[in-house]
């Protein structure tokens, strides 16, 4: 293809029982030879996306293309892709060599069976054609034409016999060369993964890292066009995981094939990838190089998920100026509406600490925590306006010390807010109620008629969260948590609906909670 694309996902969605979308209308192009990482929290749809590429799951909507051709109806074993799983799935009763050779043996058996079946089909086809000629010859009165048809019948049978024998010879050749070919390929990949002397070792005697190498070798030995890796390092200890990250990167560079890697570990993604695809709630949030994704995140979620970030609510009074935490800062962003509400993102390493008396200090505060992290100190600073900052600095500041803070304009990243309120499509129900967001709420429905479609708007600060989902109008699961300096912003997924909430209470990922909205906080608008 002109753009060198090997895998393309076109408007792909996947839903399971209950109609909940795990992957929601995503589009993605992956180039030949790329190392692409699908990155996101648990439940974001990254593994489901990988499984659709592998053929283990069929998209509910959309298409998966390989080299420009749809592979939706191609079974997994016929796709030129191989998968390495987090659980290595090695055969405990086989040694290392037998585990790696297994796929080759199955492939060769299939090829032999296909050749034999093709030979049989050729034989039957030629026999049918010869009988047709013979039948026509019997009916033919002209002796010359009769003889010509008989000759055709003989030639057809002869040609069929030659084709059949050629296919049988091919099958016999595959079988004869199978052992030597398999041994050569297995030894090649064992050398590639650094296990040259391990071919006859019991897989149960290997360490976790060695077992992972065997799993990778087994996937590579079939020479796939695309290697899929589903959190393959998740079961390894930290030191071994870091070593394997570098080995996988080196392996990718040597092989030159496409790697598609799934992980929730940001460091893994930044270390190994050519391209990082950040996902949340089944939707792609950003696609870019590790440097771009880290330095220029597209939204607050990406900024928070990729490394540490300070994220604040701010306002853009004019171009190149932003106001947050009671102060006005110069920034490098423009093109926003006057006084538009924005998200302000500052990396902890981009905040300079100085004496509180320094005239360059833009904001003053007090150190409330200080932890030595090896290469720097990680400190919490509470500003005079009770906004909490995370700061990383090589100079130690004591807890309780008064400090000033300074940030350069180009280190302040301004992002449009994806939403400033909850907005749902709703329907007026009976007895002063409205149906929206997966539940039926009491509301002021005066001026609306039962069954009428409406727009429903609820402020981020007007959603009450209760600990027991049964005590709420609807129940859901906390999927995203952002600390905004003075409060938490969380997302709660209720079926196919997401509620955005500002709260002073710290909740945890995957908490099951209930949602309550008072009638006076539900605003209805004509659809």
Main traits of this protein?
single chain; 527 residues; alpha+beta; 6-stranded mixed sheet; 5-stranded antiparallel sheet; 30 strands; 29% helix; 35% strand
SSE inventory with pairings:
Elements: E1 5-15, E2 21-31, E3 35-39, H1 46-54, E4 61-66, E5 69-70, E6 81-84, H2 96-139, H3 143-192, H4 208-220, E7 226-230, H5 238-255, E8 258-263, H6 266-272, E9 275-280, E10 283-288, H7 290-295, H8 300-305, E11 310-318, E12 321-324, E13 327-330, E14 340-346, E15 352-355, E16 363-372, E17 377-383, E18 388-393, E19 402-406, E20 413-416, E21 421-429, E22 433-436, E23 439-442, E24 453-459, E25 464-466, E26 474-483, E27 488-494, E28 497-503, E29 512-516, E30 523-526
Parallel strand pairs: 3-8, 3-9, 6-7, 7-8
Antiparallel strand pairs: 1-2, 1-4, 4-5, 9-10, 11-12, 11-14, 12-13, 14-20, 15-19, 16-17, 16-19, 17-18, 21-22, 21-24, 22-23, 24-30, 25-29, 26-27, 26-29, 27-28
